[in-house]
Amino acid sequence: MSGKKSVHGADDLRKKEEEKISHLSSPEELPIEEVRRLVHELRVHQIELEMQNDALREAQAELLESNSRYTDLYDFAPVGYLTLDERCTILEANLTLARQLGIERSILIGHPFPNFVAPGEKDGFRSHVARIFQDRWQQAFETRLITRRKGEELYALLESMFVEDARGNRQCRISVTDISDRWRAEETVRVYMNRLKQSNLELQDFAFIASHDLQEPLRKVQTFGTLITEKYAEALDEEGRDFLDRMMKAAKRMSDMVHGLL
CB 3.0–4.6 Å: which of 39, 75, 147, 174 could bond 160 by disulfide? Predict the structure, then answer.
């Protein structure tokens, strides 16, 4: 801005001096001191313009270098980036996203992003983008994306936010993180959990059958042992009572063991 003001200032000064000269009948009528003053001022302004040009070239070089750094950071970021309009058309995309989808970036630009969302999840994605434009705050959404690599899908975490550019265009910016490894690990856990539940049901069935098969004869042993003790204990000799006592204690231990296992 300062460079523009200086250039405009020099132009204004030049116009004022030209107006002064225009009032004179001819250049020869200018006083020598006035001519010297004008020449001096023109030289000063020429030096200022040269300095401003140098500063402008330096600023331009810094801007190009900064833009190059930004482009590198954008294109080679560890996550994919893209910008959508309200119709979900891709306005911008970085090289990382192109690699994630196995497609040239030039093909991505101008195409609807839902074309790269797995069937059955397109409506969910469109609803996600609609909420971004409506609520205007950052939101996350997990989905499956279609890649050009045969038989492969990308399980992705989308983190989206609302932006509005200098011209007032409403846009949605999205970062795409590959969570395929995490999703596969979680799917493996889900499979094993289902197997564990099935095994648990089978174990419960086995426990029910085992408890019936073991407890039923034990109950009979304890019942008949109790009857013998009550009715025939006095008819037994000491050795017989000892055998009966051992039998009852063994049956009790077996019954407690079955209950403990169950």
Answer: 174
pLDDT tens per residue, range 35-85: 777 777 778 777 777 777 777 777 676 666 656 555 667 787 889 999 999
Cα angle value 148/150/151 (rounded, 5°)? 120
d(CA 114, CA 95): 19
Report the alpha-carbon distance of residue 241 to residue 237 in Å, rounded.
6
Angle, CA 83 vertex, CA 78 and CA 87 arms, to 5°:
145
**Beta carbons within 10 angstroms of residue 141's beta carbon:** 18
pTM for the complete prediction? 0.54
User: H or E segment at 161?
Assistant: strand 153-164
CA distance 182 to 152: 15
pLDDT one-digit tens code per residue, 20-43: 555 544 555 667 777 777 777 778
